[in-house]
Automatic annotation (TrEMBL):
Keyword Signal attached: yes
Family per record: Belongs to the leucine-binding protein family.
Keywords: Amino-acid transport, Signal, Transport
CDD domains assigned to the protein according to its UniProt record, in alphabetical order: PBP1_ABC_ligand_binding-like
Keyword presence, Membrane: no
Name assigned to this protein: ABC transporter substrate-binding protein
Entry-linked PROSITE patterns: TAT
InterPro entries in UniProt: BCAA_transport, Leu-bd, Peripla_BP_I, TAT_signal
Residue ranges occupied by any Leucine-binding protein domain in the UniProt entry: 37-385
Length: 410
């Protein structure tokens, strides 16, 4: 195992600060007869190229720990670890947290970092609840300590394309072909492969003109956007993080490319506050599929109020929402286990059967591979500087705006 000095991670950047959940929501009653204390390690990319979603996850976990104190009677001592947006640091972070006495982990947002962290969790027999990470490999490599809340890339892409097909059938002058721009990291490659497979299965009535991969750390996407424009496609399908989603829109504006539709399955961008802060009016119109919170959930109003109070300059998104939900999954398992020991928590996680506290999805249950079988997706569109739910119809809060307003007309 590499020493900390070799990894480039300082003790401060890796460990962060332990955050207890002593202050909670007074309006909920404790469910556990005897509150149990447990030390939870939370792994996220709080700095580096993935910092925007990583920090959102940290916020969701911290608010989630406060909620769990009152909802479940569980005192969760959260110890945060920062991967610095480097996949290889997932294992280093996990090993460090386990040495500090963490008996359950949450992480790690990025699929590469998650797989890396799971290697350490597997070796130490410490269960890990994966709040976000979609690459198929997370639950297909035989890990016994993994409990993934987030759907696989194929599941989320298939469901997203079904919703896209439905939307296309409801509009006039629909696009006829699409260029697919995607990250070439673990998540991007997995999602691109899922698009290729699910596109045929769902029979999306669009021809894929070209697949255009790009590096996650790219500082300029002018060549890639020019390729997409030259392909003749009148729609763009993009698999992005926040930074590259911003770069793509800026480059489309600069090059005068105005596709009729921009659709991002399993991506960041149109759900993130940083996206709108950077793009202003140019952020509107893009469509994105993700897991999203259920505003009609019994405790949703109080939870959203707590987020707004603790973080007035941010909003709840899919990142913070999934992180919040992961904490509730842990608290529910500890409550049923009546123990802070890893083996007992692991056994309880295997028997999870709970209604989501905040997120919009079915019952949370884990199959033999540790994959949640009840997850679902929501379709968002940027409208008036914020994401609005446009599908499924059962939860839609706004109508789809189509076609995309040309960037040079805004």
């Amino acid at each position: 195992m590499r020493k900390h000095s070799e990894s480039g991670l300082s003790r401060r950047s890796l460990i962060g600060s332990g955050i207890g959940a002593a202050v909670g929501f007074a309006s909920w009653q404790s469910r556990a007869a005897t509150p149990t204390k447990v030390r939870v390690g939370a792994i996220n990319p709080s700095s580096g190229v993935l910092a925007f979603p990583g920090q959102a996850c940290v916020r969701g976990i911290d608010v989630g720990a406060k909620f769990a104190k009152e909802k479940f009677g569980i005192e969760l001592q959260i110890i945060h670890a920062d991967t610095q947006s480097r996949p290889e640091n997932g294992r280093i972070a996990a090993e460090n947290l386990i040495r500090q006495g963490c008996t359950v982990l949450i992480g790690a947002w990025d699929s590469g970092a998650t797989i890396s962290a799971l290697q350490a969790a597997e070796a130490a027999k410490v269960p890990m609840v994966v709040h976000i990470a979609s690459a198929t490999q997370v639950t297909s490599q035989g890990f016994t300590e993994v409990f993934r809340y987030y759907p696989t890339s194929l599941t989320i892409v298939r469901k997203s394309l079904m919703e896209l097909k439905s939307l296309l059938s409801s509009i006039k002058d629909a696009p006829t072909s699409a260029a697919v721009m995607h990250l070439n990291n673990t998540m991007g490659q997995s999602t691109a492969a899922s698009i290729d497979q699910a596109w045929k299965e769902v029979e999306v009535p669009l021809r894929i003109a070209e697949y255009i991969p790009y590096d996650e750390r790219a500082k300029d996407l002018s060549v890639e956007v020019a390729k997409a424009k030259a392909s003749g496609a009148d729609a763009l399908v993009s698999v992005t993080r926040v930074n590259d989603a911003i770069m793509i829109i800026r480059e489309c504006t600069k090059q005068g490319w105005n596709p009729k539709m921009i659709f991002s399955p399993n991506s960041n961008g149109a759900q993130d506050k940083a996206y709108y802060d950077a793009l202003g009016k140019y952020g509107d119109g893009a469509i994105l599929s993700t897991l999203w919170y259920n505003p009609k959930a019994p405790d949703a109003a109080a939870i959203l109020k707590r987020f707004a109070s603790d973080y007035p300059n941010d909003w709840v998104d899919g990142n913070s929402g999934c992180a919040f939900e992961a904490v509730q999954i842990v608290a529910d398992a500890v409550s049923r286990a009546g123990s802070s020991e890893s083996a007992a928590i692991h056994a309880a996680l295997k028997g999870t059967d709970m209604t989501p506290i905040l997120m919009s999805s079915g019952k949370i249950k884990f199959d033999a591979n540790g994959q949640n079988t009840g997850s679902d997706v929501t379709i968002l569109q940027g409208q008036n500087g914020k994401p609005r739910v446009v599908a499924p119809q059962s939860v839609a809060e706004a109508a789809l705006q189509y076609p995309l307003v040309p960037f040079n007309s805004r």
